[in-house]
Design brief:
The protein is α/β, with parallel strands linked by helices. It is built from 12 helices and 26 strands. Helices cover 27% and strands 27% of the residues.
């Protein structure tokens, strides 16, 4: 195959024009192009409102070395991409199937890879299946009645299920795990454009169907997935994992009712390999790990507020026109280094999306952003987050970041009596509670009310955000408009801990494999899925098939 870079065409071009452009770049006729595959497509908006796509394509044709020599095109070269290869089983005997704790992207991809290799994994998920979970979350957004076991953070698909479904990642991919992850998503229902778009996304509505189909495939291959099943203890002996104790919930009782103990049963599950893919919000599990003296450290992350603007304002800035048309809703990425050295940047930008109540603990409130596949909401929203380090945390030790998150979420809950606190930018700047909206109508999933967010974050973080907002207003005209809507608190940007693991992906406890975002080794759907694949490889390299 010959790979050609930087083929530019107007965004409204016809499909056959790309083939003609590629043929011209190689000085051959379109008829000589036997196969064309798009490898990457990005938007070039430097001459807006004239917009172009820049393509990287792979071409198959006869006598490729000769064609390349005649073309004398510096943007073309022979491409010999190696396919992804899963390792062969190891020598150590495995007497019971591997256990995977958590059914987010890391857990599902680890489970799928192990199931396809014949290992019949057991996935334990404290939350519900995705269909039941969506109903429960919808009810929470309408009524405020929170289920602490099944919510935006916990359940099939993990926190990413209620997000924009963005799939871009900065993780380097020499072994083609990224490509594998995207191909799996396509296999289970995603549009093939995610294989080449520079900013691929699925959308929460499509992603929920994909994770369900993945789970069904794991079960079809002999794996097991148990919902309402929370791991309460790791059982170890002589520095080795021996299994887990779990609490299986029977039915779905009201958590506020007495007698819940009669609705649960305890069980021990034996295992020589346990993949810990618990997600970034499993705070009770972090506490259990600390009590078991599993090595882990507090790590830096970021906290901040969600901001909403009219999507048309973002489209005008990025496209040079208010209507995105066939391009869809425009996105943005902003970064700023403040005078105090704090980094402030946009995070999880949701074009045409919603701000959602993403709480998972009672009397604590956290928000996130979410878009549907169409991204056709009237507002754009993004988190504007400020970096924090263990020096900012109120207590030392591995769980200092958890304590910091909880302190912010408690204040956010109190700021608007349990509703999502909302504040106009001009009022946030002045430190006063808003009394009425401007021209921007909130797009929310969850109940909201006015609250003073200036009293939620520490003042040094508020000042960093305010300084950054002045710069962001110069980057995107109108970004700092007085009626831009803040909501908070965005506190679950990444895990507040990192669970130690060695080059074989194991903890100090042999057979325990910390994995994904919750363990501190990923940040987002794709990188978590890739880490799930990576850890599944480590399990297979060590163990042979279960007997």
């Amino acid at each position: 195959m010959i790979r050609i870079n930087q083929l530019k065409l107007p965004v409204e071009h016809k499909p056959e024009e790309l083939k003609k452009k590629a043929a011209k770049a190689l000085r051959i006729s379109p008829e000589q192009v036997e196969k064309l595959e798009i490898r990457r497509r990005s938007l070039d908006g430097r001459k807006k409102p004239e917009l172009f796509y820049s393509y990287t394509v792979d071409i198959k044709t006869a006598r490729e070395e000769q064609v390349l020599h005649r073309a004398k095109n510096s943007q073309a070269a022979i491409c010999q991409e190696k396919p992804y290869v899963f390792p062969k089983p190891g020598e150590e005997m495995l007497f019971s199937p591997p256990i995977i704790v958590g059914a987010g992207p890391a857990g599902l991809f680890a489970g799928l890879m192990l199931a396809r290799a014949g290992y019949c994994p057991v996935i334990l998920e404290r939350g519900e299946d995705v269909d039941s979970r969506r109903k429960r979350v919808d009810e929470f957004w309408k009524t405020g009645k929170l289920d602490v076991r099944s919510n935006v953070q916990f359940g099939e698909g993990g926190a990413g299920t209620f997000s924009d479904g963005k799939l871009n990642t900065l993780v380097k991919d020499p072994l083609m795990r990224n490509r594998l992850v995207l191909e799996v998503f396509c296999e289970f229902g995603a549009d093939s454009s995610i294989l080449y778009d520079s900013k691929p996304h699925i959308g929460t509505d499509v992603l929920s169907g994909i994770v369900k189909a993945m789970r069904q495939e794991i079960v079809r291959l002999g794996g097991h997935v148990r919902f309402g099943c929370q791991v309460t203890e790791l059982v170890t002996e002589g520095g080795q994992i021996r299994g887990v104790r779990v609490r299986q919930q029977e039915g779905r009782p009201d958590d506020n009712m007495a007698g819940n103990e009669n609705q649960e049963r305890e069980e021990f599950l034996s295992a020589q390999a346990v993949i810990l893919a618990i997600g970034h919000s499993a705070r009770d599990t972090f506490s259990m790990l600390e009590q078991k003296k599993i090595p882990m450290d507090a790590k830096s992350f970021a906290v901040g507020l969600r901001i909403q603007h009219p999507q048309s304002l973002i489209n005008l800035s990025q496209y040079g026109r208010m209507d995105g048309g066939s391009l869809g809703a425009a996105s943005y990425k902003l970064t700023r280094q403040t005078s105090t050295g704090r980094g402030v940047y946009s995070f999880c930008m949701c074009p045409g999306g919603y701000v959602v109540d993403a709480s998972s603990e009672r009397e604590h409130l956290a928000v996130n952003g979410m878009s549907y596949h169409a991204r056709d909401g009237k507002n754009a929203n993004s988190a504007l987050i400020v970096t924090v380090t263990p020096e900012d945390f109120p207590q030392p030790g591995p769980l200092g970041g958890v304590a910091f998150q909880r302190s912010l979420e408690r204040l956010a809950f109190q700021a608007a009596d349990g509703h999502i606190p909302v504040q106009l930018y001009e009022d946030y700047r002045a430190g006063r509670q808003s009394r009425q909206l401007g021209e921007i109508e909130p797009q929310m999933r969850g109940r909201w009310a006015f609250g003073n967010l200036r009293e939620v974050m520490p003042e040094n973080l508020n000042l960093a955000l305010l300084e950054a907002m002045e710069g962001f207003g110069q980057m995107i005209r109108g970004f700092d408009r007085p009626d831009a809507l803040f909501a908070g608190i965005e506190s679950r940007t990444s895990s507040p801990v990192r669970i130690w693991r060695n080059d074989e992906m194991e903890s100090q406890v042999r057979g325990l494999y910390p994995c994904g975002e919750g363990a501190g080794y990923a940040g987002g759907i794709t990188s978590a899925a890739m880490d799930g694949v990576k850890v599944a490889e480590a399990v297979v390299r060590r163990f042979g098939l279960p007997r």
